[in-house]
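Researcher: Predict the fold of Protein kinase domain-containing protein.
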Amino acid sequence: ESILKEYKRTNTQLGLTIYQKLITQVANAIAHLHTNHIIYLDLKSENILVWNMPQPRLPSNGQVLVKLSDFSISRVLSPIGTKGFAGTEGYIAPEIVRFTGDELYTEKADIFSFSMLMYECLSLNHPFSRNKRDHARELILHGWRPSLTEQELSSPTLILDLMVACWSEHPNDRPSAKDIHQLSSSLEFRHLMDVIEIGSREEFNDSNTLATVSYREINDNYENDNNDDDDDDIGIPTADCWFVRQSKQNEQSSIVIVAYDQFNAVNQQIINLGNCEIRCIYYHQRDHVILLADNHNLISIYCTRTFQKLNH
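Model: Structure tokens for Protein kinase domain-containing protein follow.
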């Protein structure tokens, strides 16, 4: 915990590579315990021994080595679960808090604590310290979870999605430690910034997906469909992703244009192309146009600034 305090003192976030290595190693340790039918019960930064980790704002080789410590309240897990109240305020799973440990719970209680460790390493704050930490137990029982700043919400989507899955209210909705280790070990864990759905597989053909990206200049005009004055938190797009959709039911095609502000989708619109099959899409950056070639040997040109069709 002391090194996390040092990061906080210097106003320095953990780098994503450091974060990933830390999370992966802890997940691997928890998975090992669970494989051997042991529930840890007190997962938090204070119980993680840091053997090697880069100091904030100092050159380093990026090496990270952490280990779990303090197994004093760990329990052997029977096939039906275990009982007993244990853990640290703010990290204890709701199924333990709700019945003060008098009802059976499983190793998924550790997974809830893991989510709070993820939050702690991401925000450099104890869970619920931005609320009233003394009431963390009541907040957890009422379904509240720690708050995230705008900067923290811009973290890679797999980090956020995993954290949310781990702090699910129902134990069965939480992933296993083995699943966490597998996901956190992937390259996408620290790189994938956003995922959107542009159509269901049942409705659209995804076997030959075409897409391209057009980039906006600073002085490009941008019209948002939502004109509310209090919508200032919506960013100005810096790029547009153009996706071709081909219907499975007929030969109807369409273009889905998703506007991005850095790594976050902020707007989406659809252009229907009619009865055709798009074979090729090309972005001509100098002229700010998108060219679409279809199965009728026709080329359609769209302006990337106005999204209007220029000719056919």
